[in-house]
Amino acid sequence: MTTTDTRDTTREHPAWLPGESSRHLGGRRVYIDAHGPLVDTVRSEFTRAMAAHGGRFVDVITDAEIVVILVTEPMAPNPAHADVAAVREAAAAAEASPLTPEGYILARRDSVTAIVAATDHGALYGVLDLMRNGEPAPGVRREQPAHPIRMLDHWDNMTVHPVMGAVERGYAGDSIFFTDGEVRRDLDRVARYARLLAAVGINRVAINNVNVHRTEALLLTDKLPDVARVADVFRSWGIRLHLSVNFASPVLLGGLESADPLLPEVAEWWREATDRVYDAIPDFGGYVVKADSEGQPGPFSYGRSHAEGANPLAAALAPHDGIVHWRAFVYNHHQDWRDRSTDRAKAAFGHFVPLDGQFADNVVLQVKHGPIDFQTREPVSPVIGALTHTNVAVELQVTQEYTGQQKHVCYLGPAWSEILRFRFAGETDGARPVADLATGGFVAVSNVGTDHFLTGHPLAQANLYAFGRLSWEPLADPLRILDEWIGATFPDADDHARAVIHSILDSSWATYEKYTAPLGVGFMVSSRDHYGPDVDGYEYSRWGTYHFADRDGVGVDRTQATGTGFAGQYPSPWRERYESLAECPDDLLLFFHHVPYDHVLKSGSTVIQHIYDTHTEGVQDVLRSQAAWAGLSNRIDSATHERVTTLLVEQVRSAGDWRDQIQTYFFRKSGVADATGRPHY
Ligand code: GCV
């Protein structure tokens, strides 16, 4: 079955912005008193919208229906501006509490919409808000990002990698940046992607895979002029380009004998290479480094710590305002399954927490949200709570590696929201959520490719949208964000159609969880491609991802009392909660405990009956979604309807496969009959 459409001859789906021009900007009289490179982008959006829908620029503010102005500190009183109520109110709000560089105020009064910002970046974001959401409600609304770093990482390869393809863990066609070992000549699609990203507040993009193979290593040197072309495209949308680099670059590219980070010639190589990057790309964002992880080289080869490894790269970037994103995904991937003392979940804490305070100021430690690997359900990584003198970015995965690979509907906004709201100190007054601990911002792995819908599954666009919006406003309600996305993406859909789309997506993560690995135990996926069930697929492997099911019970004992001790990496009260069988939340029970099948959950069900029931329910949920979607056939565009219809057939098949294999596996292991009398194989 073909689930992606990589024809480049047709324009891709417009997603949450109108493809060519915004009808929200057209047909209006527009006054712009602002300047800067990003205001040029704003002006050209208005020009295109006016060509398509009418409207014109005016010279006198009192003639305007849309006003875009920059305010400075202190604000120069401009009597003409003060005559327009929307402007007056927006400017007063800006004066009362100064705008941050990317912030803006939207005000609407007497048929005039005013966008007031302090920089061209803020003005761009204000106009993009208007394009996405249409006219604001009467009144004054202030928007500003919670954090200045809101970034997407691409795992794109330049050549089709024999195992991983064009995009590692990509499910939406080929790379939009690279083809045949080169940067694409035609970057129109990148420009449209950049516009979409800016509209949800993304301001940094790393364009190549963190697994940096030989060809991709050259992006840092020989291929720089081509990288600069991509950076030019992103720049007009206020997005800085980053590169993933190979830690051994001084050897691979520079011909040095060693990449030992403490050797002066190695530090010098990084400085010179970095200076050349900035000659080509003055606003270059920095490096992403996966070191000593899954075969990538790193400082361990030279007996150096990760801080010693990161700091010379940081020193090379610092004079240019660049950042090193250093990934904390470091663990032993040659584990012996017989060895019960090693626990992959504990690895990152062990490597990085002792180094707290040793990283340079422009190093951001990029920590996956959970201690294992983007599973459907994991506890929040304790590393995020433990580092108090290191910049930490929370890494999420928009590409659905373990959550249905953009063949299954799985809206991840609610999952990310739980992570961002998690409080290591418990529910006490003043306890800070993860959203506040992310001093290095938010990063996610993108889900985009050359597919017509950008994301393979049209409804997977909602995940890209939600990541952007949550990185701007981490405590926003993910279901409100979902409705925003539906409104912007299906502008012509009636209320019924919008409600149906909402109902299919809102609980789709919970549904996916029901029919896959139970109660937080994780994996149970095919080890070949991480798609579909294979309960023992990783059970005797070297990757450290086990469930330990036997005839009596299932789960990983990570307690301090009798298990690996991982629970002890949390501060109180979570350390005690996770340790205690009675207090551990049901949805993480098998992540922390090995329990007998007749263990009674807080829900009142036994573990085995929960497994039987949820797997049946999960498939029923998908069947309901399928029926609901079928009812939309004449209510939304036919291309989207057809693609989702095809994918739902696959989701129903795959969910049924999961249900049958999981139920059968546990029935055979435990010998416990299903209390409802359901037959198992
Ligand atoms: C880019 C998981 C994925 C790998 C990925 C790795 C990482 O192990 O399966 O494909 O590599 O995470 O995040 O570096």
From TrEMBL:
Keyword Acetylation among UniProt keywords: no
Keywords in alphabetical order: Hydrolase
Keyword Hydrolase annotated: yes
Region entry Disordered, spans: 1-21
Gene Ontology cellular component list: extracellular region
Domain Glycosyl hydrolase family 67 C-terminal: 455-678
Biased composition regions of type Basic and acidic residues, renumbered to the chain: 1-14
Molecular functions (GO terms): alpha-glucuronidase activity; xylan alpha-1,2-glucuronosidase activity
InterPro entries associated with the record: A-glucoronidase_C_sf (IPR037054), GH (IPR017853), Glyco_hydro_67_C (IPR011099), Glyco_hydro_67_cat (IPR011100), Hex-like_dom2 (IPR029018)
SUPFAM superfamilies the UniProt entry points to: (Trans)glycosidases, beta-N-acetylhexosaminidase-like domain
GO biological process: xylan catabolic process
Domain Glycosyl hydrolase family 67 catalytic: 142-452
Protein name per Swiss-Prot or TrEMBL: Alpha-glucuronidase
Species the sequence originates in: Cryobacterium lactosi
